[in-house]
Structures are given as structure tokens and as C-alpha cells.
Write a structure and sequence with these properties.
Elements lengths: L5 E7 L3 H12 L4 E5 L10 E2 L1 H6 L9 E3 L1 E5 L5 E5 L5 E3 L2 H14 L3 E4 L1 E7 L5 E8 L5 E13 L6 H6 L8 E10 L16 E5 L10 E6 L2 E8 L6 H11 L7 E10 L12 E3 L15 H21 L6 H25 L3 H10 L3 H13 L7 H15 L7
Parallel strand pairs: 1-2, 1-11, 2-8, 5-13, 11-17
Antiparallel strand pairs: 3-7, 4-7, 5-6, 9-10, 10-11, 12-15, 12-16, 13-14, 14-15
Helix pairs in contact: 1-3, 1-6, 6-7, 8-10
Length: 404
């Protein structure tokens, strides 16, 4: 690399979104740099649907567990199992999954730099210059500069790229998430933890563990993720996870690591600066409300950002960058709207959470939920089932049906 070399794209961030963008663009033959802050692991349950596994060529070696059931736990401790008929949800450990994605991008030809993004400057010709800091083998810090025709910010929630270059990016609403990765307990007969199931995700809708979101226990093979989230800044996330571990008998499981981070729950209204900078993934706000699911949407946004950047580089037309957000919202905007409304209403208090869990016991709700989640498409082939669910939802909403 030289100071005067101009790259086609500099991708800031090497999580699922940024690594996917770099991988796609490198495969197309573009000169790509992936700038990633070393050692960062995002708190995440790690669930990925079959659609992601197919669309992004994820090998079975990256799947640390295969889930065939979700157990929903109400404030009253009532449990509702939602089995997956003939399929599974893959589970990944972000510590290893993200690194594998970065290595794949590098093998495709992307230049991988471990450094921290500082800002975007302009040279005398108006070309974007990404300024970053890094450390050499002796841990001495040094500065670097990368010229780029296009910059893609995939640097997570509270993205510095977005804040510096996209209007109102600093106003995106967030849930703060925290989880602990612990060793899987002994489940042999007679052990207190024999109820733990490595093929089941447990989701807790209990106000004591999260006043406005949910908590979880997700299997990762030899380890598991125990976490929670809340937008309430005064709520103790670490205390809530400790309480959940005590409640479920997992308090003695060996702690491996803990992570916390904000998670955006609303897509930005604008993803580009109208010139040569675009954002994707958490930086663009593409985490699903209500569910908090982000890996699939991050990787899709990364792919769409890559397609937009490819078109921009080939045509020189900044309007090509609009393609990323427009395509994403066309595919998933309606789902995000519905989930946002659902979270705002059903997560408001334990009485409503209880009714929400009761709805999850309905076979039609379960079938359509899994079909939509697994394939990432709103199900349209069962109109009568949708009608039935609509009237059941109204009954629960107005209290006509009491929780079971």
C-alpha cells in the first residue's frame, strides 16, 4: 500500500455486515480494504435462520448448535414450547463466527487492516481519505490514511462513520444488551440442571429481568449465552442476568466472557451522504424490533451496500448508493414496522406479556411465526390462518380471552 493509492472501497468494520460487504466486493474484483477494530465481540444470542445459511454459504462447521424448539416463559413462569416442524435454527458463537467471516473476506482478496477508524477527510481533489490508528508488533501506535472512491461504514451501533457523515444518525433509538457466555452445565440424570436442553432457546418475557424487552438463554454447544436487554438506562443489566442465572439454576456455571453494547432498533431514514459514503448493518439500524434479531439483516444490508457501491464505482453516479436502503426497506420495511408496533404494545407490562405468551401457544401463530422467521418472508399462502390470528389477537388485546 502507498499513500497515493486509491482503493475502490474502504469498509469500516468487520462484523457480519462489513465482512460480507468486503467479501462480495473482493469477489467482484474490486480493490477493497476492510478496517476492523481488533478484539471486539458483540453481545448476541447467535441465532441464524436457514435463509442466512443458504444465501451466505455458511458451512456446517460454523454452526455450534441446532435448535428445534423455542420455549417462551411468561411472567407467571408459565412455559410455552414452540417446536420447529422439520427444520432448525442454527446457532453461532460471534467470537468465532465473525472472525471466520473476516478470514473469508481476506481470502477473497480484501486487504484486512486491524485498526480503529478516526475520521474521513478529503484530499485536494475531494477524494475521501479514511484516517485510522493501529498498533505494530511492538504495540506502538501509529496512524494510517486510506484513499477511497467509496467508504462503507459497518462499524456498529453508534457508528462514528454514520455520526460524522449521515444527518441525524446520532438520534437512532437503542436497546442496551448484555450477556454472559458460560460453560454448558452438566445435564446428566440427577443433576439440578438436567432440564437444560442444548437444542432449545429459552426466551423470558418477565419484567424483573427486562422491563421493556426480553431475556434469553441460548445454547452454543459447549457454551451458552445468557443475556438481556433494555432501553431503561437505570436498569441493571448485569444484575438482571445474575437474577436469571439464579432463577434457572445456572449461577455456578463457569463464566467465560461477558459483553455489552447498544443495539439499534430502527433503520436510519438515510444511509448515504449523497456523495461517496454509505452505512450498513447496525450502523444503518437494521436490527429487528421485538426480536432483536440482527445477524441476517446485517449481512443482507452488507450485501446490498456492496451492490450499491459496485454500481456507484462503475457509473460514478452517487444516486446508486440509494439502492441499498431502498432495496432493504422494500424487502423488510413492513416486517420492521409490524415488529416495532408489537414491541411497543406487548412489552409494556407483565400483564400484556402474559397475554402475549398465551398467544404463542396457538398452533397457527407458531406455524406462521416459524415460516416467516426461517425464510425471512411474510407468509401469504395461508390467508385464513392470518384472519384467524387477527381475530385472536383482537380478543387478547381487549381481554376477551383470558391467559391460559
Amino acid at each position: 500500500m502507498t499513500q497515493d493509492e486509491i482503493y475502490d472501497v474502504v469498509v469500516v468494520g468487520g462484523g457480519p455486515s462489513g465482512a460480507t460487504t468486503a467479501w462480495d466486493l473482493a469477489k467482484l474484483g474490486h480493490k477493497v480494504v476492510m478496517l476492523d477494530k481488533a478484539g471486539r465481540i458483540k453481545p448476541c444470542g447467535g441465532a441464524i435462520p436457514p435463509r442466512l445459511i443458504r444465501d451466505f454459504d455458511i458451512p456446517d462447521s460454523q454452526i455450534v448448535a441446532k435448535v428445534n424448539t423455542a420455549r417462551i416463559i411468561a411472567p407467571s413462569h408459565r412455559e410455552v414450547d414452540m417446536p420447529i416442524d422439520g427444520g432448525f435454527v442454527g446457532m453461532v458463537d460471534r467470537e468465532h463466527f465473525d472472525e471466520w467471516l473476516r478470514i473469508r473476506a481476506a481470502h477473497a482478496g480484501a486487504i484486512w487492516i486491524k485498526g480503529t477508524f478516526e475520521t474521513v477527510e478529503r484530499d485536494q481533489n475531494g477524494t475521501a481519505v479514511v484516517v485510522y490508528t493501529a498498533k505494530n508488533a511492538d504495540e506502538d501506535e501509529y496512524g494510517g490514511r486510506l484513499k477511497a472512491r467509496c467508504v462503507i461504514g459497518a462499524d456498529g451501533a453508534r457508528s462514528k462513520v454514520a455520526k460524522q457523515n449521515i444527518p441525524n444518525a446520532d438520534r437512532i433509538p437503542c436497546v442496551f444488551a448484555y450477556h454472559e457466555i458460560v460453560e454448558t452445565p452438566d445435564t446428566t440424570p440427577g443433576n439440578p440442571n438436567q432440564k437444560y436442553d442444548g437444542a432449545r432457546c429459552d426466551v423470558f418475557y418477565q419484567g424483573e429481568h427486562s422491563p421493556d424487552f426480553y431475556s434469553w438463554i441460548f445454547p452454543h454447544g459447549q457454551t451458552m449465552s445468557i443475556g438481556t436487554g433494555s432501553a431503561n438506562k437505570g436498569f441493571s443489566l448485569r444484575g438482571a442476568v445474575g437474577g436469571l442465572r439464579n432463577q434457572t439454576g445456572l449461577q455456578d456455571c463457569k463464566l467465560i466472557r461477558r459483553e455489552g453494547a447498544p443495539i439499534p432498533l430502527k433503520p436510519l431514514k438515510k444511509w448515504d451522504n449523497g456523495k461517496d459514503i454509505l452505512v450498513a448493518g447496525d450502523a444503518a439500524g437494521v436490527v429487528a424490533p421485538a426480536s432483536g434479531e440482527g445477524i441476517y439483516y446485517a449481512m443482507l444490508a452488507g450485501r446490498l451496500a456492496g451492490e450499491a457501491a459496485d454500481k456507484f464505482i462503475k457509473t460514478g453516479d452517487p444516486k446508486a448508493l440509494l439502492h441499498a436502503r431502498k432495496s432493504f426497506m422494500k424487502l423488510h420495511g413492513r416486517v420492521f414496522l409490524i415488529l416495532g408496533i408489537m414491541q411497543k404494545f406487548w412489552y409494556q407490562n407483565d400483564k400484556r406479556r402474559e397475554r402475549f405468551v398465551s398467544m404463542c401457544d396457538d398452533p397457527d401463530v407458531q406455524r406462521l411465526t416459524w415460516e416467516s422467521y426461517m425464510n425471512k418472508e411474510l407468509v401469504r399462502k395461508s390467508p385464513m390462518a392470518h384472519v384467524k390470528i387477527f381475530f385472536k389477537d383482537l380478543a387478547h388485546l381487549f381481554g376477551v380471552v383470558a391467559p391460559n
